[in-house]
Each structure stands twice: as C-alpha cells, then as structure tokens.
Amino acid sequence: MSKSHKVWVSRPLFPEVLEHLARYVEVQAETSERKHTAAELREKLAGVDGAIIGLSDRIDGAVIAGNRRLRAIANLAVGYNNLDVPALTAAGIFATNTPDVLNETTADYAWALLLAAARRVSSAERWLRAGNWRGGMRFDDWLGVDVHGRTLGILGMGRIGQAIARRAYGFGMPVLYHNRSRLPVAIEHDCRATWVEKAELLRRADHLMLVLPYSAQSHHAIGAAELALMKPTAVLVNIARGGIVDDAALAVALREGRLAAAGLDVFEGEPAVHALLRELDNAVLSPHLASASADTRRAMAQLAADNLLAALGHGPDAGHPPS
Ligand code: DGY
User: Fold this and answer.
1) Most exposed residue of 56, 150, 211, 240, measured as fewest CB within 10 angstroms of its CB?
2) pTM, two decimal places
3) ipTM
4) Amino acid 109: pLDDT
C-alpha cells in the first residue's frame, strides 16, 4: 500500500509504536539518541508531513521557516517549552503533547527524590559502595530530616502537582500550594490542599516541590531571594524544568546550609549540570527521568504516535493540542 504521509521520529522509540505508525505512514526513525542542531532539524523536517520529537529538539520559527510540507509536530512530553507554539500555529502546524498519562509516575518520582534527598539515600549509597562501612557507625551519623508529618509545599498545582498532593495524606502531611489562581474547592478538598501566597508558601513549607510549567514568567521563580525565605531544614524538589530554579543560587544555598537538601531531576542548560551542584552531597541529581517507567514511557510514545496520526487525518481523534 503506498502511504501518502511521511513522518520523522527524532529518537529511538519502542518498536511496537513504530510498527503502529508504519501501518499508516512512511516512517523514518533515528536509531540513536542525540540532540539535533537547528540546521539538522530544518533539513529533517523539510521532507516530512509530521514528526515525533523530544525535549532536546527545539522547534522555533527559524527551524520551520519556508517549510510548506510539515503539518504536525508531536512532542514526547507534557511540557512543551521546546516548541514555539505561536510560530507553529502561525505556520498552520499542529502541535501536540502527552498530558495525563505521566501524572502518577511523575508524582511517584517527585516523592522518590524528596525521600532520597531528605534521608540522604544517594550519598549513603556512594559511601557504602566506596567500601567505607567497615566498623561500627556512629549513632548520630547520617542524620537526615523527617518527611512524614511535615508541611508539604507545592508550587504549581496542575495535574502532576495534584497527584503529588494526594500522596501526602499517607505521610500525614498537610499540603499548602500556590498557583496564580486558586483551584476549584472540590479539587482542593480532594487534594486536602490549601492555597497560600507564594511568599507564605516558601516560609511555611517544610519541603517544597516545584511542578510548574516553564515560561518567561516562571524563569527563576526560585532564585536567591526565594531561597532566603525557605527553612534551613527544607528539601527542595524540582521535577519541572531547570530554568525555574536559579541553579547557581541553589548550589550556594545548599553549600552554605541555608537549605537542607535538594532533589533535582531537571537543570538549567541540561544535559549540563552546574559544577557546584555535582560536588554537593546534599543534592540528589537525576537525568530528567521523572516519567521514565516502562509503562508510562510506552504510553507517552503511543499517545504521541496517535496524536500525530490523528493530526495527519489517520485516526479517530483530533489529536491533543498542548494544554
Ligand atoms: C515532560 O513530559 O514534560 C517531562 O519532563 C518529560 O519526561
């Protein structure tokens, strides 16, 4: 059967998802993972009707300039700060993302980072693996900070923030949150969460999770001034986007003990990580893995493929516009 549409997949994907795509469209899929330059993206996208791309692929007006063929871009992520949506819209290119399927898995990971950072799991493991556990251990060594019963702060109470908040009940933690606007009362009840102003959130939270989308408005939402409001016993978790935190200011606060610890899955300018953060034992660092469970990554890939097919007119749905 001759296929009317051609799509490019910018990174290796689950074979079954590629096979599903290939039933409808001609597929050209990369077999190794790497960041593409703007020139490479321009060239790849020039010859296709649609593409599945990842967060490291930045699609802006310059990349799509003069492209008369491209109809749809499916982002393999819920966040889409790598897409210039106004430029895509102006060019008549449909942009889609992968909301909802990753909420619970990402919330699990936020808790994993909070617990690991508060209880010093990574540094203790490094110490043990280095062969340091020989004799007895001091009773007052490796002391962490408690998580249960403390007040959890959530900055950015969207769908993932709400999934994080619902887990707090099991830890006996009251939840404070800040969004630009309050959630409907029914959702606040469901999450047992109370809206407060941002400064109050920073002052009162025993531990703080960052879950807000990245934009010019949220750039450095947590910088030196905000860190100064936080408790020195607090743990900061960032599973959102690197640019939301001023990593240099965070590293200094961690080094000076103005913050107990941090659990970070995202970094300014990733894959580069601030040199001081890499040195600090009270920072738990991971390479943007929050949605990386086998089931969720499969669901994200499948949703991205279905979105792309729908946008090209091959599926029953209209596709997911970024939401
Ligand atoms: C997202 O979906 O935005 C995550 O950051 C990628 O795992």
Assistant:
1) 56
2) 0.94
3) 0.94
4) 98
Q: What pLDDT score was predicted for residue 3?
A: 80
For the chain, the first-to-last Cα distance in angstroms comes to: 35
Q: List the catalytic residues.
A: 241, 270, 288
In the chain, which residue ranges form alpha helices assigned H by DSSP?
Answer: 15-22, 38-46, 61-64, 85-90, 103-118, 121-129, 159-168, 185-191, 198-204, 224-229, 247-255, 275-279, 294-311
Measured by CA distance, the residue closest to atom 2 of ligand 1 is: 77
Does the beta carbon of 304 lie inside 6 Å of ligand 1?
no
135: left (phi over 0), alpha (psi -120 to 50) or beta: beta
Give residue 321's pLDDT.
44
> How large is the average pLDDT for residues 84-100?
97
For the chain, domains (ranges, CATH) are 6-100+294-311 (3.40.50.720), 103-133+142-285 (3.40.50.720)
Report the share of the chain in percent with pLDDT over 90: 94
Atom of ligand 1 nearest to the CA of 266: 5
Atom of ligand 1 nearest to the CA of 239: 5
Predicted confidence band of residue 135 (pLDDT cuts 50, 70, 90) = confident
C-beta 76 within 6 A of ligand 1: no
Q: Whose C-alpha lies nearest to ligand 1, atom 1?
A: 77
